[in-house]
Design brief:
The complex is a heterodimer of chains A (307) and B (797). Chain A is of the alpha+beta class. Chain A is 34% helix and 24% strand. Chain A folds into three domains: 2-64, Uridine Diphospho-n-acetylenolpyruvylglucosamine Reductase, domain 2, CATH 3.30.43.10; 74-185, Uridine Diphospho-n-acetylenolpyruvylglucosamine Reductase, domain 3, CATH 3.30.465.10; 193-301, 2-Layer Sandwich (Enolase-like, domain 1). In chain A, 48% of the residues are buried. Helices cover 28% and strands 24% of the residues of chain B. Chain B is built from 20 helices and 31 strands. Chain B folds into three domains: 32-52 and 489-628, Aldehyde oxidase/xanthine dehydrogenase, molybdopterin binding domain (Aldehyde Oxidoreductase, domain 4); 62-154 and 216-294, Alpha-Beta Complex (Aldehyde Oxidoreductase, domain 3), CATH 3.90.1170; 306-484 and 635-792, Aldehyde Oxidoreductase, domain 4 (2-Layer Sandwich), CATH 3.30.365.10. Chain B is an alpha+beta fold. The chains are: A alpha+beta (307), B alpha+beta (797). The interface between A and B is large, with 32 and 42 residues. The structure holds flavin-adenine dinucleotide.
């Protein structure tokens, strides 16, 4: 509630000694290794620079990966969509592939900040920020995406639920590692998705609530095969409403089941109150409303609307 | 507190009062050639190309960097302060504490109650307890961290009503009641006895930040002759000078305040340059070196003034036919830690006084009783912000009028049409409005353009899912031109050169409102030259007459008149010369578009510059100085009756909103704003003021609030303090009406502040109309609207 000294005595200087521009991913990883945790990856810089300014982040060097080759493409391999580690929000929104096969991600990326922020900011950076309300984290979480993380020790693949560790921490240590790609299955027939956002103003603001839903239906039986509901910020990290999802799995498409899912999500979410961003009580009420709306819309898009 | 009521005295009308002030409107028999034209703003190109240098762009070479050590507590006694370590840090030029202030250790726009450096106690989080100047900002900051201060905590008070209680902690020795004023018109008690319907409501508005784009900056540069030059963006260079001279303990002529380009002010840069100026000057005085203090955004939020929060209690009564009979109001106006611009400036200046005078709205009500309290607390302090004292009460009177209309079973439109001020009406202060009252014109033309009748019928759900409802609302408003004090004069120098070009020097500053375009238009019109022939000099207290602050929507009208008076002196001289040169009687000469000619024989003509050059050669006057003050304001301290302001601008806004009934989100979908401005000197620039003002009023309604918890602001940066973006602001349709002001240049009256006043309640009323719930405690953000809907629980179709 009160301030730390630095919060009301502004230094107006970003204290880094080196700004490094590697030519390849391997070189970037070596630079990071050399600094032994005292250097930080910077990509679009839209999170890093404000943090340095506020001295929430203090490092000796920045390793700028934004010009590394081969990580700026969006590709489809089989039924997998692969997003390079440097793909920006603007590129994501503009991609026909994403809009058709992962609409929920395009919708989320479109709501990040402003045109300037979307041109600079990257999807990988958004994930790596670990922010519980990050606009592309919820869609990717609902799409069951996984990230590929590289270091001098090699590569590993982490699924999103395990990627988020709370308190803005993630499985990718941005002082040693680089997210090289993000992949997930393309949405197809009988699948539908929806992204919703609640905020105090229409642009350039952190969301009070972000929701992403993906449903998989059996149109003949009019049942829900599978459902994913990702919500933020209602927990210390991007959150999957598992209880609500369980209620939906295998259930017939109905108003009643959607209401029940909303109630379950209401119960399992644990948002915090803040004088600026609102009460926990309100946010919980909104979880209920959003889950309902998100499901109605996703079911409609999957070709199986609630009658 | 006296409860006796006073008879309504007829107050002398203004025009008759001051016949010598007439005649400024019509200055030529011909229609104006420059005034009334939408010429491109003189600063537009340099601003859009980014070429204009603001304070932060100035070279820092040779400057020391000044920093302020701030109090971490809202209320505490300073026990000890140890600056040794900080002083010994290499690169530090000065570390100053209270005893180092050479003159008066206090500054303030009205009362110098804010210490330049606190010596005994601190009164809000952010109060300055030490000053540092160092070779770099980094070193200055390190020095701050090395200063050790010991505090004894005092109990704080954060609520103005709490602050008035006997046992409340005292923020200042004299107690927490800074000012109390009252207004008594007719007999409120008798008035309520005649009423068929009486309702009572309480409305609350929070601290608001100006959120001007440019963070504050000030440069103090000691001159070789001992003068202290202070440069920075400032709305009131003369008030800055007046404070610095006292703080340094030198006479007025030893301080020079010079205005540099300003990136927005909205009233905030009336106070903050005093604060920064005094502190930078004290550091420069000690080090004998130029010192700059540049604030970061968070520091601006912490340190500078805000719009006053108010709690407003109202009781209002009307007869069945809708006519208003009585109004009773109480205002608790929170001043915060220091007096700043809050307190009474006789007869009718000050935050709570402005609020009191305008509280019952632009309506004729025979019986009015208002009590206004201005209280100290340990929160940040209140100052002027676009409409000083008026935006708050507009939120109250415009909402209660709607609530009353509902209780009466009439409509928001009809109740306003019945009770709105007209020519001949008496205001709450008993002022009889004898000229330039276009309120009803704005109501009618706004309704027409908005299609009110149809839209008012056509509310209800707008989508298939029945989650969104449409509603419409009216906000009516009025606002003074001038500040209501006895110091309201403006002075201008007009200097014509031998080539016919003109240097116009005034004390009015440009902060984005367009004065440097409109003032030269008036000057060019009066002289008969083109607007591009007139250059405006930067306001500099060494070079221009004292003109008061650039506030109170006074610049165009008051300074416009001063310019006309100055220009006339020169014009007379030039025309006399031209009469000699053309051998035409003076009375037949006309000066227009750089030419002087015989009205009866237009071929007898002379270039304006030729006459000017001859004046120069012959030593005939080419410099004029005009000074103009509006008719003297009056306000009886016992009754609050009088003529506080000499003319008012009137306005009606209509807004359409969609409200999401499940989330409380509000979208403003349509907007019309009509104004009676007397005369639009530059219609395009005026529209700019209207659009910006409406956007600001929208922020007040929907998102803006300085969120303070126990004295600590929780939203210091613009990430968390939310002003509207371009996506939040609807298309605004401005309507400009001209009901001539007899005292204004070409008939003009003020417009700078007016546009944001009716905007806030228009939107709030539209929300209530849409969803049935009403937010009486701003802002109406989604959560507040959501709970208001829940609370209302009215069955909707
Ligand atoms: C004005 C403004 C508005 C914003 N609005 C929104 C908004 O509406 N919604 C939203 O979600 N976010 C918003 N943000 C936050 C930010 O823009 C996003 O999180 C963005 O996606 C971050 O991407 P970046 O490339 O700029 O990351 P950077 O700032 O470069 O990095 C962010 C973090 O991720 C790490 N990192 C980046 N890339 C990689 C990588 N490939 N591998 C490993 N680590 C990496 C960095 O080390 C750092 O810790 C906003 C920011 C600003 C300044």
């Amino acid at each position: 509630m009160s301030y730390a000294f630095k919060d009301f005595h502004w230094a107006n200087d970003i204290r880094v000694n080196e700004y490094l521009l590697p030519k390849t991913t391997a070189e970037a990883l070596e630079m990071l290794a050399e600094y032994k945790g005292q250097a930080q990856v910077v990509s679009g810089g839209t999170d890093v620079i404000p943090k340095l300014r506020k001295r929430e982040l203090e490092v000796e060097a920045l390793v700028d990966i934004s010009r590394l080759p081969g990580m700026s493409d969006i590709k489809q391999k089989g039924d997998k969509i692969i997003l390079g580690g440097l793909v920006t929000h603007a590129r994501t929104v503009a991609s026909l592939l994403i809009r058709e096969k992962a609409g929920v991600l395009a919708e989320g990326a479109a709501r990040v900040g402003s045109p300037q922020i979307r041109n600079m900011g990257t999807v990988a950076g958004n994930l790596a920020s670990g922010h519980p309300a990050a606009d592309t984290s919820m869609p990717l979480l609902a799409l069951n995406a996984s990230v590929t993380i590289a270091s001098t020790e090699g590569e590993r693949v982490v699924d999103l639920p395990q990627f988020f560790q709370g308190g803005n921490q993630t499985a990718a240590d941005s002082r040693r590692e680089i997210i090289t790609q993000i992949s997930f299955s393309a949405l197809g027939k009988n699948q539908g998705c929806c992204y919703l956002r609640l905020s105090k103003r229409r642009a350039l603001t952190i969301a009070i609530l972000v929701l992403a839903t993906v449903v998989d239906v059996d149109p003949d039986e009019k049942t829900i095969r599978d459902a994913a509901i990702a919500i933020g910020p209602v927990a210390p990290m991007p959150f999957r409403a598992r209880d609500a999802e369980e209620i939906l799995k295998g259930a017939p498409v109905s108003k009643e089941i959607v209401e029940r899912a909303g109630d379950a999500a209401y119960k399992e979410s644990t948002p915090e109150s803040s004088v600026v961003w609102g009460s926990d009580e309100y946010k919980k009420e909104m979880v209920k409303v959003f889950v309902r709306r998100g499901l109605y819309k996703a079911l409609k898009r999957a070709g199986c609307p609630v009658a | 507190m006296s409860t006796k009521t006073h008879d309504h005295k007829q107050i002398k009308t203004l025009t008759k009062d001051k016949p010598d002030l007439q005649g400024l409107i019509k200055t030529s028999q011909m229609s104006p050639s420059v005034v009334g034209k939408s010429i491109v703003r003189t600063d537009a190109l340099s601003k859009v190309t980014g070429k204009l240098a603001f304070g932060a762009d100035y070279s820092q070479e040779g400057f020391l960097h000044g920093k302020i050590l701030r109090s971490p507590y809202p209320h505490a006694v300073i026990k000890s302060i140890d600056i040794e370590k900080a002083k010994n840090l290499s690169g530090v030029a000065a570390v100053l504490t209270a005893e180092d202030v050479p003159g008066r250790n206090g500054f303030g726009a009205i009362i110098p109650d804010q210490p330049v450096i606190c010596g005994d106690k601190v009164r809000f989080v952010g109060d300055g307890v030490a000053l540092v100047a160092a070779e770099t900002e980094k070193i200055a900051n390190q020095a701050l961290e090395l200063i050790k201060v010991e505090y004894d905590l005092l109990p704080p008070v954060f609520d103005p009503i709490e602050a008035l209680k006997e046992d409340a902690p005292k923020v200042h020795e004299k107690g927490n009641l800074l000012s109390y004023n009252k207004l008594r018109k007719g007999d409120a008690e008798k008035g309520f006895a005649q009423a068929d319907v009486i309702i009572e409501r309480t409305y609350k508005v929070p601290f608001l930040d100006h959120a001007y784009l440019e963070p504050d900056i000030c440069m103090a540069i000691p001159q070789v002759d001992g003068t202290m030059l202070v440069e920075g963006p400032m709305q009131a260079p003369f008030t800055v000078r007046r404070n610095i001279n006292a703080v340094l303990g030198v006479p007025i002529n030893r301080v020079q305040a010079r205005q540099i380009s300003m990136g927005g002010g909205f009233g905030g840069k009336e106070d903050s340059p005093i604060d920064l100026g005094c502190r930078a000057a004290v550091l420069a005085h000690h080090t004998r070196r130029p010192v700059r203090i540049a604030l970061e955004r968070e520091e601006v939020t912490l340190q500078t003034c805000k719009r006053h929060p108010m709690t407003m209690k109202i009781k209002i009564g009307a007869k069945k036919d809708g006519s208003l009979v009585a109004f009773e109001g109480v205002i608790y106006d929170e001043q915060g830690a220091y007096a700043s611009l809050g307190p009474v400036i006789p007869p009718a200046g000050g935050s709570h006084i402005h609020a009191m005078i305008m509280m019952s709205g632009p309506y004729e009500i025979p019986n009015v009783k208002i009590d206004a309290y201005l209280c100290f607390t340990n929160n940040p302090y209140g100052g002027a912000m676009r409409g000083f004292g008026a935006p708050q009460v507009h939120v109250a009177h415009e909402q209660i009028i709607d609530e009353l209309a509902e209780a009466l079973g009439t409509t928001p439109f009809d109740i306003r049409r019945r009770n709105g001020l007209r020519e001949g009406s008496a205001t709450a202060t008993g002022q009889v409005l004898d000229q330039s009252v276009g309120l009803h014109d704005t109501l009618e033309s706004c309704a027409k353009a908005f299609d009110w009748e149809k839209k008012y019928q056509d509310t209800g759900y707008v989508n298939e899912e029945k989650t969104k409802r449409r509603g419409v609302g009216i906000g009516m408003g009025w606002y003074r031109t001038s500040i209501g004090t006895n110091n309201d004069a403006c002075g201008a120098n007009v200097y014509v050169h031998e080539d016919g070009t003109v240097l116009l020097s005034t004390g009015i500053t440009e902060m984005g409102q367009g004065s440097f375009t409109v003032l030269p238009q008036i000057c060019a019109e009066e002289l008969g030259v083109r607007v591009e022939d007139v250059r405006v000099a930067r306001p500099d207290t060494d070079a221009v007459p004292e003109s008061g602050p650039t506030v109170g929507s006074r610049s165009t009208t008051l300074m416009g008149n001063a310019i006309i008076l100055a220009a006339r002196q020169v014009k007379k001289s030039i025309l006399e010369m031209a009469a000699e040169m053309l051998m035409v009687p003076l009375t037949r000469l006309e000066s227009r578009d750089r030419r002087i000619y015989d009205r009866d024989n237009p071929d007898t003509v002379l270039e304006f510059r030729e006459a000017a050059a001859r004046c120069m050669a012959n030593g005939k006057r080419l410099i004029g100085q005009g000074w103009w003050a509006p008719p003297a304001p009056s306000l009886d301290p016992e009754t609050g009756q009088g003529n506080p302001y000499f003319v008012y601008t009137y306005s009606t806004h209509m807004a359409e909103v969609n409200v999401d009934m499940e989330t409380g989100e509000v979208e403003v979908t349509d907007y019309v704003a009509a104004f009676d401005v007397g005369k639009a000197i530059n219609p395009k620039a005026l529209e700019g003021q209207i659009e910006g003002g409406v956007a600001m009023g929208l922020g007040y309604a929907l998102t803006e609030e300085v969120a303070i918890e126990n004295g600590y602001i929780q939203n210091l940066s613009l990430r968390d303090y939310l002003i509207p973006t371009s996506l939040d602001v609807p298309d605004i349709k401005p309507i400009i009406l001209e009901v001539e002001n007899k005292f204004g240049p070409y008939g003009a009256k003020g417009i700078g502040e007016m546009p944001n006043l009716p905007a806030t309640p228009a939107i709030l009323n539209a929300i209530a109309n849409a969803c049935g719930g009403r937010v009486r405690d701003l802002p109406a953000d989604p959560e507040k609207v959501y709970w208001a809907i829940k609370e209302a629980e009215i069955p909707l179709d």
